[in-house]
Design a protein that fits this description.
single chain; about 55 residues; mainly alpha; 1 helix
């Protein structure tokens, strides 16, 4: 594992960053691999998503 002293950097992704469902960890790994050599987009999502709410009757 690279260390700051050796000039490398460590990145926490998936469950190493925060526990969650396996789908989230898998997505984090795929996203990191796709964006490894690209510019950092931070928390911006590269896709649109629908946010739903429960109706109160």
């Amino acid at each position: 594992m690279p260390t700051p002293a050796s000039g490398g950097r460590s990145v926490l992704i998936g469950d190493a960053n925060a526990p969650g469902p396996i789908a989230w960890a898998t997505y984090a790994g795929h996203r990191y691999a796709r964006e490894l050599d690209g510019k950092d987009i931070g928390d911006a999502l590269p896709f649109r998503r629908e946010v739903t709410e429960l109706a109160v009757d």
